[in-house]
């Protein structure tokens, strides 16, 4: 949808492809498998911010969302 400004995702292939196709930056919290590689690859390209579920906090989520919403490089 045109009003989507950011996408929070586990980093699965299909959902990340959809975000890429619509140029929506992501906040990723991978759970298993290829999700870690997918999210890290996008984070390296400044398409996403990668979060670690083991150290996740409200502040980290807010910081990640602010990064992708306010930094025009995303």
UniProtKB/TrEMBL annotation:
<protein>
    <recommendedName>
        <fullName>UDP-glucuronosyltransferase</fullName>
    </recommendedName>
</protein>
<comment type="similarity">
    <text>Belongs to the UDP-glycosyltransferase family.</text>
</comment>
<dbReference type="InterPro" id="IPR002213">
    <property type="entry name" value="UDP_glucos_trans"/>
</dbReference>
<dbReference type="Pfam" id="PF00201">
    <property type="entry name" value="UDPGT"/>
</dbReference>
<dbReference type="InterPro" id="IPR050271">
    <property type="entry name" value="UDP-glycosyltransferase"/>
</dbReference>
<dbReference type="GO" id="GO:0008194">
    <property type="term" value="F:UDP-glycosyltransferase activity"/>
</dbReference>
<keyword id="KW-0808">Transferase</keyword>
<keyword id="KW-0328">Glycosyltransferase</keyword>
């Amino acid at each position: 949808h045109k009003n989507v400004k950011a996408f929070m995702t586990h980093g699965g292939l299909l959902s990340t492809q959809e975000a890429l196709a619509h140029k929506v930056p992501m906040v990723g919290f991978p759970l298993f498998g290829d999700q870690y590689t997918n999210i890290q690859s996008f984070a390296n390209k400044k398409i996403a911010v990668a979060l670690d579920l083991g150290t996740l906090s409200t502040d980290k989520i807010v910081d990640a969302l602010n990064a992708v919403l306010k930094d025009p490089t995303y």
